[in-house]
Amino acid sequence: MTDRGRSRPWTMPDPEFPHLADDEELSPFALRDARGIGQVLHGLAEARALVSVRLVPGGHACPTALLEVRDDGTLLLDGNRDEAMNRRMAEATRLVCSAQLDLVPIRFRLPTPTRTVHEDFVAFLAPWPQSLLRLQRRESYRLPMSATATATVEFDAAAGGATPRQPLRALDLSGGGVALAVPGETVHGFQAGTRLPPCRLRLGDADPVPVAIEVAWLARDGVRGNVDWWRAGCRFVDLPPAVEQQVMQYIFRVERQRNARLRRGG
To answer: 3-134 falls under which CATH superfamily?
Structure first.
C-alpha cells in the first residue's frame, strides 16, 4: 500500500476465514446483483477498509484499499510502495480479495487489473466483481446438520436430575447457538430461560469442548420411533473466542465440502 493509504484509519479484515474467497458458490452468502454489489463496494470505500489481496498465481499477499468505486462498473485499488509487488499485481490472473464491513467478512474476486496513476501514486483499475460473498454475522447463519456433518452436546453424568444420559443430537449450529433434538422424557429440563448443566460440544469426530448453554425456545418436533421429540433452540453463553472460532471453522468447512459435492454432481 502506498503512503497515500498509510495515514488512514484502517479497519483490519477478519482473519478467521482465510479460504472462503475461493468458493463463490456458498449459496447462503452469494450476492450477484449489481446494485447490491455496488452498495457493498461503496461501503468498503467509505469505511476506508483494508482489503487483503491474494495474487493468483503465486499466492502473494498484498494489502490495498478501494480508492474509488465508479458508476461505469469499475473500481480503483491502491498500489503498493514495493514496485516488485506492483508488478506481481499487474501480472496476476486473478485477485482474491478479503475485507470486513461492519464486522461482516466480505470476499470477492477480480480479474487482472490495469495499472494506472491516481493522484500521483500507482493504482489499479478493475471491473466490479461478478459476485460477492457477504458472510452473515457469525451468530445468524445456521448450518443444518446431516449424516455427514454432525454435532452433539454431552452432559456430565454427575449433573443428575432430568439431564439426558445420552448425548443430544444437534439439528443445526451457528456461532451463537445450537438447536437440539430433545426426547420427551427429559423435555421438562429444557424450558425457555433454563441454564443447562455443564456440558460439552462435540463437532464431528473432534474432541468435545466445554460450553455453557441457555435454552431460548422450545417447540414440539413430532413423534419418531414412538418417541415424542422436541426442538430446543439454545444460545451459547460467554463462548470463549477460541471455541467460537472452532465452531465457525467447522461450519464453513462443511459448507465447502457440500459445495464441492454439488459441483461434482454428487
So the answer is: Electron Transport, Fmn-binding Protein; Chain A (2.30.110.10)
